[in-house]
Write the C-alpha cells for this entry.
Amino acid sequence: MSERETTDARLSTIHRIVLDPNPGVVLGPKPVCRPTGKPGVMECDKCGADAIHHAAYSGAHLCGEHLCRSVEKRVKRRVREDGLLDPDATPDDPDRWVIGLSGGKDSVVLTHILDDVFGRDPRVEMLALTIHEGIEEYRDESLDACLELTASRTIRHEVVSYDEEFGVRMDDVVENDPENMAPCAYCGVFRRDVLERYAAEFDADKLLTGHNLDDEAQTALMNVLEGDVRQVAKHFDASLGTFDERGETDEFVPRAKPLRDVPEKEVALYCHVRDLPVHMAECPHASEAYRGEIQSVIHELEENHPGTRHSIMAGYEELSGIVAERYREDAAGASDDGSGTDDTDGRPTLRECERCGSKTSRDVCRKCRLLESIEAT
C-alpha cells in the first residue's frame, strides 16, 4: 500500500470512529487555531477559531488546539488526583511506570502525553511495552506505529511476543480453539501475564493502560448488570481508587488509567490533530458480543442524555469504593477464623503456580492450563 493510500485509509477509519449523528463535528484537513469566517461553522469557545468538536456533555465548542489542551489537562488532573507520581520519588530512586503500548489510538495518546509531561523528569522512569500476539498483518502494522512513535522520544520501548513467551500465535489459537472460547478470552489471559511479568522484571511501581471513558463506562455497566459485586470491589482496588485509598497488595503491580476521563471520540480527534502515528483497525479476532451491546446502549443514552458516561462513572466510582471497603472489613474478620482469605480485599489466598510461579488461587494458573490445552491439540 502506498503512503497516500495508507493516509487515506487512516483518515477514513478516523471518520468512521469519531463522526456521529451529533451536530458540530467537522473533520477534514488538520485544523488550525484561526477563524475562517465561513457561515454556519461553529466557533471555538476559547479563541473564536473554527470548532472541530462539540462536547455535548459540557456544551463546549472547541478548535483542534483547544481540544488537545483540554485532553491534556484532564490527563494531568487524573495523574494528580490519583497520586500517580510518588511524592517520595527522587532521581536516585525514581517512580517506575510501564505503559502498555499497542499502537492503537488510546495507548498512543497516553504514551505521547506522558512522555511530553514526564519524559525529562528525573523522578520518573518509563518503559513502553508492546506485545505482539501473533496476529498477521494487524499487529505488524500497529507495531510500526509504536516504533514510529517512540523513535524520536526519550521513552524506552520493548517489544515481546506470545511466540517468544509461550510458543503460541493467536492466529493458530483461534483456528484450533481447544477450549471453544472467544479469542479475547485466550488473549486476555496471555496479555495480563506478559504485562505483569515484565512490569515485575522492570521493578515497576505502576502499570498504565490506555482505557478511555467509554471503556470504563462499559465495564462499569457490565459489572452492575451481571450483579458482580465482588468484581466491582476489585475494580476499585485495581485501578479506580486513588493510590492511597486502595487496598494494599504485594501480589500485583498497581494499575492506573490516566485517560479514563476522556471520551473515545476525543482521543481519536487528538490523534488526528497532533498527527500521531496510530493503527486504527480493529483486531480481526475481536468478538466481545456482550460488550458490543453495552457499547450501543451507552452510545444511544449519551446521544439522548449527554453526560451519561460521566454520570455512570461518578456513581460507580463512589459505589465501588464503598463495596471495596466492605469486602476488606469482611476479609479482616474472616482471616481471624481461618476461612482462607487474606486480610486486604477479600480475595482467595494466592499461591505460586506449580508450573510457572505466577500468582494464582489454584495449584496451576489459568495461563498454564490454557497452554496445556493448546499443546494437546
Notes: The longest strand covers residues 124-132. The radius of gyration is 22 Å.
